[in-house]
Amino acid sequence: MPADLEQKTDTTLYIMEHADKGARITCTIGKVTINMKKGVDRDILAKVLLSLSKVDSSIAYEYETMCQYNDINRLRLDDYVVVSYSKAGPSTYKTIFSVPFSRRKALRRLAINMSERLKSGDADLSILWDGNPSKIRQLFEELGATNGWKMQVIEANKDS
Known about the structure:
By secondary structure, the chain is an alpha+beta fold.
């Protein structure tokens, strides 16, 4: 491919970390990764999810799980969206859910599920989004630098 037609990408990383090192959010223009350490305060978890929702309510977290049919319906009632499911065993279904950040009930269920996971270990979420530096700054402002959040910007492959 000729040099003038090469796709140029901005791979700048924006890393937001809570002062206690229990929570970290890494953002690029295409992805948000949330890392939570075991035992992180539930208020920090809630603040992260609500802040993301305020900045971009169109995002959704998608994940795959094995569950019983009754669990599929229970999560659907909590505003999770069933992307697909298939029978994987006598009473087990392989299910892909989408958790829309525009729905408070779904966010609440996601926070509860993450809190349960954080009792036994660390938890990570990877979310695709249509981000930009303005949205990332807005997210940092929502989290609040006065509440112990710091941001580091790592620029790479910046073309002039």
